[in-house]
Amino acid sequence: MEPSKPDPAMEETAVMEPKLDATPTAVSATTAALSTVDAGTMDEGIYKFNKQLIDTVYDVICFLYPVKGNERDFARFFVLETVARVPYFAYLSCLHLQETFGVRYPNMSDRMRTHYAEADNELHHLLIQESLGGNSNPVDRVLAQTMAFFYYWYVIVIYTWNEPAAYHLSELIEDHAFDTYSNFLKNHETFLKSKPVPEIARKYYEEENPFLFELYCTVKDEPECSVEEQATVCCRRPNLETLYDVFVCIRDDEKEHWKTLCNLVQFDEMNAVAARDVKSTVPAPAESA
Questions:
Q1: Taking the mean position of all CA atoms in its chain, how far away is CA 213?
Q2: Which residues contact 106 (CB under 8 A, 6 or more apart)?
Q3: Residue 38 reports pLDDT greater than 60
Q4: What is the Rg, in whole angstroms, of the alpha carbon atoms belonging to the chain?
Q5: Angle subtended by helix axes 138-161 and 86-100, to nearest 10
Q6: Half-sphere exposure (CA, 13 Å, Cβ side) for 229?
Q7: In which band, very low, low, confident or very high, does the pLDDT at 248 lie, cut at 50, 70 and 90?
Q8: What is the pLDDT of residue 40?
Q9: pTM of the entire structure?
Q10: What value does the mean pLDDT of the chain take?
Q11: What are the residues whose beta carbons fall under 8 Å from the beta carbon of 210, sequence distance 6 or more?
């Protein structure tokens, strides 16, 4: 007797992927559906190695550039921003190469555009620090550029081998960046409020077309925006009065990057869960003997 054949309708249902609709209602529905999936964890060995690597690099930079609450601190941020922007165009390079060799998958183009927007955002963070004199010392420039060069190729190798591991590197960096800017804002508010807004910051945050600025805001903060705005923009256009406001914007940008990266590591999607549900990646629990 021949084994019973599966129902063709059931087979089709099992393999059929949902089509993504760009309408606001569909975006919200897709996010809600994805948020019911458990967040992925990371291999404990990879997690620990990534954390040790990023913590070590960060500690070295902190040792070389202790916070003093004066103009010298801008060199510290220059070095940090030079390194922090590297992974985004490393990701983009790998995706372009995959595309060149015929690799295609849903939302690949969206991911590429988002990484470009992230790199552009980090570039403007760097330009702001340069406008403040952060790159005035050639020693600082050589150190930052050397670190960036080798880190770029390291991320290329890791992304080619294991994409979530490469995204996790940046998740850790952006988490450090958010904390660094938050502490600087808290501890040196008076100093920052005594400084004017750099022209490059005003141009980027207030004057330029917001398309790229909004494109990297993939994880929406629903209470702040209408449904229509959630599907298209980040809903955050600042009013800059002093350098303090600029640093608040940079800090908040780092948080946006962190949210996207957490989603990519844990769900392989840029906006799988809403902003309020985003949590840092955790290592996979050890298997019991």
A1: 13
A2: 17, 20
A3: yes
A4: 21
A5: 40
A6: 12
A7: very high
A8: 76
A9: 0.81
A10: 83
A11: 233, 237
**Measured distance CA(169)–CA(40) in Å, rounded:** 16
Beta bridge partners of 42: 283
HEC assignment per residue over the chain: CCCCCCCHHHHHHHHCCCCCCCCHHHHHHHHHHHCCCCCCCECHHHHHHHHHHHHHHHHHHHHHCCCCCCCCHHHHHHHHHHHHCHHHHHHHHHHHHHHHCCCCCCCHHHHHHHHHHHHHHHHHHHHHHHHCCCCCCHHHHHHHHHHHHHHHHHHHHHHHHCHHHHHHHHHHHHHHHHHHHHHHHHHCHHHHHCCCCCHHHHHHHHHCCCHHHHHCCCCCCHHHCCHHHHCCCCCCCCCCCCHHHHHHHHHHHHHHHHHHHHHHHHHCCCCCCCHHHCCCCCECCCCCC
Q: How far apart are CA 134 and CA 255, in angstroms?
A: 22
Q: Which residue has the higher pLDDT, 250 or 208?
A: 250
CA–CA dist 284, 47 (Å, integer): 9
Residue 34 has pLDDT above 50, yes or no: no
**What is the average per-residue pLDDT within 262-281?**
90
Greater model confidence, 15 or 276: 276
Q: Which residue is listed with tokens 């019911």?
A: 36
Return d(Cα 44, Cα 256) in angstroms, integer.
Answer: 25
